[in-house]
Amino acid sequence: MHARSDADWLDAAAKLAARARPLSRPNPSVGAIVVKDGRVLGRGWTMPGGRPHAEAIALTQAGPDAKGATLYSTLEPCAHASPRGPACADLCSAAGLARVVTGLEDPDTRTAGAGITRMIAAGVEVTLIDRNAVRSSLAGYVTRASCGRPHVTLKLATSLDGCIALENGESRWITGEDARLHVHSRRSMADAILVGGETWRSDRPSLDVRLPGLEARSPRRFVLTRKAAPEGVKAIDSPSGIHQLADVQYLYVEGGAQTAAAFLQDDLVDTLHLYQAPLLIGAGRHALGDIGLSHLDAAHGRWACSDSRQLGSDRFTAYERTRST
């Protein structure tokens, strides 16, 4: 059995970070592991509400044994103190760590490299390693910081011929139970969920999480509409309105067709989740309206497959945006 590399440990920390999402808001979901001689001494992820931080939890678990160890943290340890706890860069220095390996410099201007500088000044070796798993685990935080909006996942559930409903509007259920349960697991990782006004008025979807033990992770509900906000949900009047959702890092968009097209046309979709059922509908309602595509060349190279798996009789595929329109 081969020894784990720095990259392996960072990837493991990224998996821990997923446990914090989305309850760590407004803070990022960070994972951290303290390792010495190949043995895990402590591990942690950001707690609900943002504190304690992942590094603080991992170091507390490691205790005095953290001296001479390596801390793997998906995000640069913070350099700013809070009424709820000291700066993690100071904790790392005080613990006597030999090394800190991190996957991303914190874009928060209160840290932005200052944590790394402070640890190096205290004699801690710091290594920065770029990992896809780390960037994916912090996608909402980074998108919020760099674009001023949430990271957007667009979910489509279609037949083999790209329909989301019969011509008369009947759509329950195109996909099977396994796929629907998977959708609920994705909802549980989002801060907010959005559908179009027509979908809301015709279906009144609950848009909650119905998985045992995860019901409290149901996202806030939004409707894309220029009309007054329906009871129990909030309204935005255009896709660009998501820039005003300051406390939302991850937005899950479930359609319908015109809403999906509007987000794609405005280049506001970062991830596509496609659930495809093994059935043909023919003259049905298609998954997308006009997205403003005038040349086929412009459609190529825009998306890259990041995951694909079978869910019962249905196929799930995830795509990440590789370039803007």
Overview of the structural elements:
The protein is built from 9 helices and 15 strands. The protein has helices at 6-17, 54-62, 88-94, 114-121, 132-137, 139-147, 177-187, 197-203, 257-265, and strands at 31-36, 39-45, 70-73, 99-102, 125-128, 151-158, 163-166, 192-196, 220-224, 234-236, 250-255, 271-276, 284-286, 303-311, 314-321. α3 (88-94) runs parallel beside α4 (114-121). The longest helix has 12 residues, at 6-17. The radius of gyration is 22 Å and the shape is elongated. The relative contact order is 0.12. The model has no long low-confidence stretch (mean pLDDT 91).
Structure keywords:
single chain, 325 residues, alpha/beta, eight-stranded mixed sheet, five-stranded mixed sheet, 15 strands, 24% helix, 25% strand, elongated
**DSSP strand tally:** 15
Q: State the distance separating the first and last CA atoms.
A: 45 Å
**Largest pleated sheet:** 8 strands, mixed
> Helices and strands: which structural class?
alpha/beta
Q: Low-confidence parts lasting 5 or more residues at pLDDT below 50? A: none
CA gyration radius, whole angstroms: 22 Å
The number of helical runs is 9
The helix content, as a percent range, equals: 10-25%
Order of helices and strands: HEEHEHEHEHHEEHEHEEEHEEEE
Main sheet: strand order: 10-9-8-11-6-12-15-14
Strand residues, percent: 25-35%
Overall pLDDT metric: 91
The shape is: elongated
Provide a brief overview of the structure:
The chain has 325 residues and is α/β, with parallel strands linked by helices. The chain has helices at 6-17, 54-62, 88-94, 114-121, 132-137, 139-147, 177-187, 197-203, 257-265; strands spanning 31-36, 39-45, 70-73, 99-102, 125-128, 151-158, 163-166, 192-196, 220-224, 234-236, 250-255, 271-276, 284-286, 303-311, 314-321. The chain is built from 9 helices and 15 strands.
